[in-house]
Design goal:
CATH class of the largest domain: Alpha Beta
Distance between the termini: 23 Å
Shape: globular
Strand order of the largest sheet: 1-2-4-3-5-6-7-8
CATH superfamily of the largest domain: Alpha/Beta hydrolase fold, catalytic domain
Strand content: 15-25%
Largest sheet: 8 strands, mixed
Helix content: 40-55%
Order of helices and strands: EEEHEHEHEHHHHEHEHHH
Number of helices: 11
CATH architecture of the largest domain: 3-Layer(aba) Sandwich
Radius of gyration: 19 Å
Structural class: alpha/beta
Number of strands: 8
Length: 257
């Protein structure tokens, strides 16, 4: 069932399917609710599945101001309130993991599955900072030598070569939102999560490395880690059979009801 609410003046799209314990599916950056297509059928047999399109993705409208993880979390809280959902299960992949962490740190949550989740601020090397500040200096110099219009074209060409695909494929507003979200460190919230938490991770994930998962496991009071051999950042899609088996074990009590 397709549904929507208006939050902060924008339309948020989500779907409801199945029956039972409410379960939110929260996708990663640059994706939408369809990312979970392979596992939704299995989950809908046992749960009331709420598959959300985050603002700016899928069928949801783009924010009109620069959102951070806080605003995205509030949008999910608004959907939960609208549907009368309390103590949901959360399954969050990548950016959806960020939202899951914030949500669970301050709301009653039944269980959480963090899949290749973001939330640990990456350690920056000297080389990283050298590149960042060199680029800033070059932008300033380009504006002085080329003028604003020509300089902006040059800056965009440099960004296209050096930036991530998520950044390059985004609109200016979503670029600003991405820049804000990726720099948010959520480690201070993890000890506040009381719900049982499953960490499902690709051993070769380079976007959110396995070291992030181990840090989350150490900070979240009731957490366990499953590592997927040979998998990368989309471990649940690279080995859906394993993911389904692990979920069946983690949700054994809920699935018996």
């Amino acid at each position: 069932m397709d549904k929507s609410i208006t939050y902060n003046g924008i339309r948020l799209h989500y779907t409801l399917a199945g029956a039972g314990q409410p379960l939110f599916l929260l996708h990663g950056w640059g994706c939408n609710a369809k990312t979970f297509k392979l596992i939704r059928g299995f989950l809908e047999l046992h749960f009331l599945v709420v598959a959300v399109d985050f603002a700016g993705f899928g069928q949801s409208e783009e924010p009109r101001e620069v959102w951070g993880v806080e605003e995205y979390t509030r949008s999910v809280e608004a959907i939960a309130q609208h549907e009368g959902i309390t103590s949901p299960i959360l399954i969050g992949h990548s950016f959806g993991g960020r939202v899951s962490i914030v949500y669970a740190s301050r709301n009653k949550t039944h269980k959480i599955v963090l899949v290749d989740a973001a939330g640990v601020k990456p350690k920056r090397t000297f080389t990283y900072y050298r590149k960042v500040y060199t680029f800033k200096a070059m932008k300033h110099l380009a504006r002085l030598l080329l003028g604003n219009e020509r300089a902006e074209k040059w800056i965009e060409s440099r960004r296209a070569k050096a930036g991530s695909s998520d950044y390059n494929n985004a609109t200016p507003m979503m670029r600003a939102i991405l820049s804000k979200c990726v720099n948010e460190d959520l480690c201070h919230l993890m000890p506040k999560i009381s719900a049982p938490t499953l960490l499902f991770w690709g051993e070769n994930d380079t976007a959110t490395p396995l070291s992030d998962a181990k840090k989350m496991e150490s900070l979240i009071p009731d957490a366990g880690l499953v590592t997927v051999a040979g998998a990368g950042h989309f471990s649940f899609l690279e080995n859906p059979q394993l993911f389904e088996r692990v979920l069946s074990s983690f949700f054994a009590k809920e699935m018996k009801k």
